Amino acid sequence: MKTSDLFVKALENEGVEYIFGIPGEENLDFLDSLQGSTIKLILTRHEQGAGFMAATYGRLTGKPGVCLATLGPGATNLVTPAAYAQLGGMPMMMITGQKPIKASKQGQFQIVNIVDMMRPITKFTKQVVHGNVIAATVREAFRLAMEERPGAVHIELPEDIAAEDANEHLYKVAPVRRPDADSFAIESAADMIRSAKMPLLLIGAGANRKRTSVALMQFIEQTGIPFFNTQMGKGVIDERHDAYLGTAALSDHDFLHCAIERADLIINIGHDVIEKPPFFMKEGGPNVIHVNFSAAQLDAVYFPQLDVVGDIATTVNRLKSLLTPQSHWDFDYFYRVRDEVKKRLSKYSDDERFPVLPQSAVSAIREELDEDGIVTLDNGVYKIWFARNYPCYQNNTLLLDNALATMGAGLPSAMLAKLINPDRKVISVCGDGGFMMNSQEMETAVRLELDLVVIILNDNAYGMIKWKQEGMGFNNFGLDYNNPDFVKYAESYGATGHRPSSHSEFKTVLRHALNSKGVHLIELAVDYSLNHSILNEGLKEKICIL
């Protein structure tokens, strides 16, 4: 068969359901091979949209999402999604085309060394130079993409190689068992936990796996140790749990950090230093046990006293078998901090002023959305309010990016979440700046007949940077702009547009949109005027309860 046929067969062998992308003339053999495949091609309006959808597929399923682009500008448009997947620990495969490599067709027209370009931001990148290596290359790329820590891989298929005959056989997809942690390390961790007076559990991005979620719930139920999470660890444990203290949405100074500072031991499950740090280690501070698939990456603010390296779920289960509640453990202060955090976060949640405060918008969305409903966020200052104020009841029900923290991913992520979870309600929350970076994917969402709600928090500015600008004492300069009429913009794509003019009308519109067919866009005016006083001035002046 043709090499492109074998490539498609190899992808089918891996269980690939979708390929997201924009083909070019260099992909036409591959595109022709897809016609008779079980794999569905999802045509997007920009390669970034395709890449973000593929990365989110990997995040939600644990299997690599696949995206496709042509050479040159098509491939370079996948750089940001590649970094998004690589830093976020999301398995993803990128396939790009290339001019013939055995004979020059058009000189150097559109030719960029894409393999070298991808090398710093992928786990694996390779140009296929012969059809008889394609099946092995695909199998190895998928293995690496899923291996902890997951990430992005890339295969370049030149058009003359795609058209060649190939005779290679497919390779069986064999399950991989991750190694268990060393028994001495687990026993040492159990000794440290038993000896501590005020141990605290931290759940990070690396713990956001189904097996780990079950193991951690059983560990917390048995030991009673209170826990908090990072932004990308939200929902691993139901945040209505009595032992939940809150989410570390900021690196320091938040009320939650009063508990962190009082702890004498932090059991750090699945922390990834790529994620914005939930606390800063310092000499004389709490000891830290690092539990992860790999050893800690040390730096000036993170230097654990013990590494427990191995499969996280197995490690947590083995620790649970060695631990019982200790009479000298004292969690009273932690629970007083928990109650203080709840009180602080509830402020403004029912405020009905308009334009809406972000806290109030978060509260309304949580109230209207089902327990298993999914919210995807773009990147903006509202992300901090969602991380702090939005309680998650299940894992992967609040998809935010706290690694690359790129704008433009929110809408494509929501489209993918709805595509593979058609029976669950999905909301994409974007700032006006982030939405416009990939707003053309509204057409894709409408064409796919998705039932999707898109909320644009509109402040006619790059609000996150304005907040930082104010916090650093600079004048307001260079960050304001004008927007299109978002209602008409939505309608031009065949979606339904809404522009509520009050807080109560927003809740009514949101309820209607969540229970209606089709794509609904809600332009919601937002008031960020309290961000500086609360997140900059107020938190720095906080006094921890006694």
Give me the CATH superfamily of the largest domain: Thiamin diphosphate (ThDP)-binding fold, Pyr/PP domains
Please bin the fraction of helical residues. 25-40%
Sum up the overall morphology in one term: globular
Distance between the termini: 74 Å
Largest sheet composition = 6 strands, parallel
Number of helices: 22
Provide the gyration radius in Å: 24 Å
What's the rounded overall pLDDT mean? Answer: 95
Give a written overview of the molecule:
Helices cover 39% and strands 16% of the residues. The protein has 546 residues and is α/β, with parallel strands linked by helices. The chain is globular, with a radius of gyration of 24 Å. It has 22 helices and 18 strands. It folds into three domains: 3-163, Rossmann fold, CATH 3.40.50.970; 183-340, TPP-binding domain (Rossmann fold); 348-536, Thiamin diphosphate (ThDP)-binding fold, Pyr/PP domains (Rossmann fold, 3-Layer(aba) Sandwich), CATH 3.40.50.970. The chain has helices spanning 3-13, 28-34, 47-61, 72-76, 79-88, 114-118, 134-146, 159-163, 183-195, 210-223, 256-262, 312-322, 332-346, 358-368, 382-389, 410-420, 432-437, 441-447, 463-471, 486-492, 503-514, 531-540, and strands at 18-22, 40-43, 65-69, 92-98, 124-127, 152-158, 199-203, 227-229, 244-247, 265-269, 287-292, 306-309, 374-377, 398-399, 426-431, 452-458, 496-498, 519-525. The strands form three sheets. It has a six-stranded parallel beta sheet with strand order 2-1-3-4-6-5, with helices on both faces. The chain has a six-stranded parallel beta sheet with strand order 9-8-7-10-11-12, with helices on both faces.
